[in-house]
Amino acid sequence: MSSQRLSAKERLAIPRQPMPARPAAERIRDFAEVNLGYTEQLAMREAQRCLQCRNAKCMAGCPVGVDIPRFIDCVARGDLPAAAAVLLETNALPAVTGRVCPQETQCEAACVRAAKGEPVAIGHLERYVADWARAHPDRIGLARGPRTGRKVAVVGSGPGGLSAAGELARYGHEVTIFEAFHATGGVLTYGIPEFRLPKAIVQQEVDRLVALGVHVELNTIVGKTYTVPELRAAFAAVFIAVGAGLPVFMQVPGENLKGVYSANEYLTRANLMGAWRPDADTPILRGQRVVVVGGGNVAMDAVRTSLRLGAQEATIAYRRSKAEMPARAEEVHHAEEEGIRFEFLTAPVEVMGDEHGWVSGLKCLRMQLGEPDASGRRRPVPIPGSERVLPCDMVVVAIGTRANPLLTATCPELKLNRWGYIEVDERGMTSVPGVFAGGDIVRGAATVILAMGDGRAAARHIDAYLRQQDPAATAG
Question: N or C: which end of the chain has fewer CB within 10 A?
Answer without folding.
Answer: N
